[in-house]
User: Fold this.
Amino acid sequence: MNQSAYEIYNDRIGIKLSYLLKDEDKSTDNSLAVLSYSAYEKRARRNEQFRLRSGGGLGNEVLIDLEQLPEEWYKMALKRFGELKQHAHPMAQFFKLDADARVFYDNYQFESNGEFLTPQQKKRYTINASVMAAFASLKAHRELSKKSRGGRLTGLWASLTSDCVSFNEYLKAKHNCTHSLPSSEKMLRERYKRWIDLHYESIIDGRNNNSNAQLVTPEMIKLWQDIYAGQRPYKPSYQEVSERYNQFLAGQLDIVVNSTGEIYDHTAEYYRPASESTVYQYQSVWETKVVTHSLRSGDRQRFKGIAEPFHKLKQPEFAGSMISIDDRQPPFEYAPGKRMWFYCAADLGSEAFTNWVYGETKEGIIVEFYRQMVRNYSEWGVNLPYELECESSLNSSYKDNLLAPGAMFSEVRIEANNARGKKIEQYWRQVRYGKEFDKKHHAWIGRPFSLSENNQKPNDKVPLIPKSEIVANSLETIALWNNQLHSNQELHPGLTRWDVFLDKQHKDLKPTNWAGILPYIGFNQKSSMKAGRIILQGRHRVVGYNGEVATGESLIQIMKKIEGHNVNVYWLDDNEGEVLKALVYDLQGVQICELLGDLEYSRSTLEMTEEDKKNRQLTSAYAATVQSYIRNNAGEINRVTLIEEEKPRSTRFQIKGFDKYKPADGPAEIIAPIESEFKDDLNDLKNPMKNPFNTSTASRF
Assistant:
């Protein structure tokens, strides 16, 4: 049996090294013989993307990325070995966890009762929404592909339903999850229509969908697709599609289906006006463009369809677009073989270090790292970064919660066993070997096997320095680095790295998704609500939503759920130790509200500030809400008298000598005063010497 020269690895196509080498002891009989093993090693060092997989063990040969081969070698490989058939699931190329869906469900609140979704619902709905988006893209892809070839759509929904059901196997293997979309064609059709109309809200169970929200109908989308891809060989832009659609609505343009002669009816109620941006949203997505603009034959195109092409990565122009994080051990020892651990973040747009924590070990360092990031960014008045790249060793346990797309960051890329895949590694090399940074210190430790002799470990014994000095050196390095000029002075003339970070934040960064991060990195304190207040840090605090104190019906709804009950408070402090943000959850993990300040104000009218006056008004409104609720509901209660029917009692058991008190029927008897009856005895008491006591003891014996 002939062995294939190709192998798919991490969704990319690789060619085995032995099919390229000219060395007789390392190549196969059918090798292209285009390079030697030493030449391969040089190419792999110069170009990190050249080698797709390192070799190791039987059956685990080195793989070279097919897209990285020179054009001449690439054509030779296709000619001799043919093409590799695609085995990936058809929905896989369209699937990604939807960060916007996660944000939507994290903050979704039912209008009827003000309740939030449970953690289990948030996760399930996010997965279903992500799969539904992939399903919609696959459907559009197949429709346009068939129409462009003049084919019919018969059996399309049956194949789509089958793919949607089988996609659960891919999800379980690749993402350790499954979706719960319908498995029948009829129900899946209905769910798809609701998705087009209501998008994320259509995924939520038990909701009454609002028909008024159906701004874009399936018929509109179908017509746009026909205009966009059905005028072969002419290929209009999305602006032309919008213009043609508006002419169609006005009755100025007839659109005819060539295969049937059918004319679309512009008076149909499901054809509605739509803006150019709406047409763009449905027509300019990648899956549409790649089909309508790239339908041509050729092996190379088919390979590129299942393998992501190589891109030269450009540095972000704005701060906040992306950060790179990693651990580091500064090259200094405080005891033989003992070095401090740091965990830091670098903003790639500004090149500035924006977060740092340290300790003797890695234990607990990652949790404190993310806490400190939230504190720092809040203190500086900037939003959290949009995207994160990190290594897997410390972060993998958070990939389904804190680091799920949309929780703390909109996009997350976790690098597994690829130290060179993180941009911050390049900054570390400059810090370690730069003469103005680590290397200037007398206790600096070189690398024993460094390629550069001046970076190797010296013969002299390197002194030990205290941990406090190591920390001070590292913080001094961060300050010096951040205050240096940005490397791209053409783009940021005269600005330091820190200037770029503060002054050139990307305008589209999203506010912090507190509900997505506090349950994982916040401190947890059990408390309870009494009289509308919850104690945190020894202070009575009020409740509300989104930074606003709850009053009126909102406060009543909260108190109905948790007044007098135990709750979980997840909170985080700022760099001054004050509460930065606090959210209240019931014991089942459902978010209830936000915990705010205690509305303290001065007792003295003379000393009252504007803030005091505002807090006084809020406190009065807060209390008036509860008082009004009690008063209104108390007024609905009627005063009643309860009359119990007297039941016969048994008298069979009696106690002898026990006379039950019976009141007399006649008038009360008048009794003489005590002074008249005991007059003589009282006189004797007043004159004790008149009848002296007998003190003799003779009578006792």
